[in-house]
Amino acid sequence: MAINVFCKRLAMAVIVPVILVTATLYPVFRAHLDARLDGAISTADALLQGGHRTLQKDINASINHLLATAEMPLLKRYLDGVGVAQSPPLEAATQLTKAQVRALFDTLLPHYARYAQLSLTDLDGRALLSVGHAGLPPAGQDANAVLLHEARLLAPRDVYLSSPRRRLPYESGPSVGRPVMDIATPVYDTQGHRKGILRFTLDWQTLATHLQQTMALDAASYPLLVDARGTWLLDETQGPLPFGGHFASHSPETWKALLPRHHGKTDLDERLVMFQTYDARIHHYQSQAGMVTSEPGLQPWRLGIVLTKPSLATLLHEEKTLLFILLLLYLLSIAFGVYWAISHHRQHALRRQAQQLSHEAHQYALDVRDLYENAPCGYHSLDADGRVVKMNRTELAWLGYSAEEVIEKRNYRNFVTPETRQAFETAFQAVLGPEREGAAECELLTRSGETLPVVIQATAYITRHGYVNTRAMVFDLSERKQMEEALARQAMTDPLTGLGNRRYLHDQAAREMARARRSGAPLSLIAIDLDHFKRINDEYGHDAGDLVLQAFARTAQGLLREGDVLCRMGGEEFVAMLPDTPLDQAIQVAERLRQALENAPVEVGQEGIDKHLLRYTASLGVTSVDMDEPSLKPAIKRADSGLYEAKAQGRNRVVWM
After folding, report:
1. Cα dihedral angle (237, 241, 244, 246), rounded to 10 degrees?
2. What is the distance between the alpha carbons of residues 564 and 574, in angstroms, rounded to a whole number?
3. Which residues contact residue 195 at a Cβ distance below 8 angstroms, ignoring those fewer than 6 apart?
């Protein structure tokens, strides 16, 4: 019995310490592994951001190299002679310029280093110049046919970007060549005529190696770069696939996790994937390109790092001395082990919590700054003298200036047009005054010389130490102003003929009569009515009647001077007001108009069915406007009387009153 109890106690003495020490050490190891994982995640996140910046910088730099080369005067002078018949002296000059361009390309290729080939083709894909490795496929084959087709459709300073394509046999030796990517833009001669396509062939492996070096973490992890179709874009030395391999088929679970989101991380049992997207079509804002296009369905790319999670087995394998330490720990006090484990675990939790709070605070600050900089309205702050101390990107873009040109250097009132500067000054003084707020509707003068109608609402930012600066919101009123002008034009215009209406006539008459009173210049009026217009509508239909009215408007506008006013009063009735025109000249104008209408038949009917010429005439009444009359109505009445007399005399004639 005693032996049995001793054995049991001995077993408990062995088993209990083992259980307690194991239970104590497990959280320690777990926390250590979590800490290693968190550290790896933090490092990977920094490397991922650096890789994204590197990729964006390299692509944007290549775009800028291409556009800078396309704008070189020497290249434009060479293009002047492309596709143009030339005399022998001019042909010799063109060949000399071509040699200079080739020498320039020979200089640029080793200077930029990252390019495999610089080539220039005409709009039909025929090679004009090519510098670099031989063996690249000629224009018109495979991806190059797509590139040339797309590049021909680009606007100036737009860029076409191909996806990295499979290696091409342009290097010497039995192995295949390095992968490449093309960027292209249209080029123009000195007259601005589109003459060809400039293409830079980027040595993709150089860029990929740079990217892989930037994102190198450890031997158990590797960078990831795939296009939107799941094609692997890196070298097999830094990943599970060779260049061009189908990652979507190789790792379907990983690919499925990457598709729905633009950035984040995905937990895949023993591995962790951190990623974000890169789209050259929208991430080229630091380049000089107007717009970047690419092959459909290949953007955006997904850039990431695949981490192998640390495990206890790998940890023990890496640190042999840890086994010895574990044996010692099993002999130490259980209480000390428990205390250490709990303390370590608590410290780890607090550290993670602090990191999370710091990350959230940083993200919140970034979100607030992004909202300020890219708001749909303008924001700015001014000191007490009106000098700009802060301005968001939206308002800077409106004005056409950079932040370096404006902030702490320009007075905001200098952006306000002289006509509206008083309204701005009044509002600014109200902000500085006891009310601490003010608003003004004024116009801003942009860098290009255009004016921008805006409304500014400002308040004073005050701390316990006193006034600091103004905080102002600026709203663009361009659309509202354009709509008001459009509505005003519609209210003054006849929709069928495009002529002014009755309201427009009286508005113009008030101006012309006031001018005539000041200058003493004569002012005449012609009333016009189309003869038998009701019969035209009845016999040929209202569509034919509309064609007759429109034809009349064109004929009359062609005969009248630029300053004359022609308006449709309603139906088939029109009035022409002739400034600086005495009655005798107005009668001559009316007679010329009558003859022109008589000899200008209108083509009516449907094409090929009932198409024929319809002749029409008009009766006209002419009068002189008396400057003693308060408005144009008496003159219109007299002209109508002449028109009715012309009708009574048989139509198609001019009568003056």
Report:
1. -160
2. 13
3. 79, 82, 83, 122, 123, 187, 188, 189
Amino acid occupying residue 285 = Y
CB 381 within 8 A of CB 461: yes
Q: What is the pTM of this model?
A: 0.47
Count CA within 13 A, CB hemisphere, residue 257: 15
Q: How far apart are CA 633 and CA 650, in angstroms?
A: 26
Nearest to 548 by CA among 559, 558, 534: 534
CA atoms of 387 and 54, how far apart (whole Å): 37
Going along 536-611, which residue ranges are E strands? 565-570, 573-579, 602-604
The structure tokens 């109200």 sit at: 430
3-class secondary structure, 114: coil
How many angstroms separate the CA atoms of 276 and 47, rounded?
Answer: 12
Residue 293 forms beta bridges with which residues? 160
Report the distance separating Cα 572 and Cα 527, nearest Å.
11
* Residue found by looking up tokens 């700015």 in the block: 380
- CB-based contact 228:139 (threshold 8 Å): no
Q: Is 271:309 a contact under the CB 8 Å cutoff?
A: yes
Helices (H) and strands (E) in the chain, counts: 19, 22
Per-run averaged pLDDT (10 residues), the chain, 657 residues: 58 68 71 77 85 87 88 88 79 84 85 84 86 54 66 87 70 56 91 90 84 78 87 78 86 85 82 87 75 86 85 65 68 52 60 76 72 79 87 88 88 88 86 83 87 86 70 80 67 84 89 90 94 89 90 92 91 93 94 93 72 88 91 92 92 91
End-to-end, the C-alpha distance of the chain in Å comes to 147
What Rg do the C-alpha atoms of the chain give, in angstroms? 41
To which H or E segment does residue 460 belong? strand 451-463
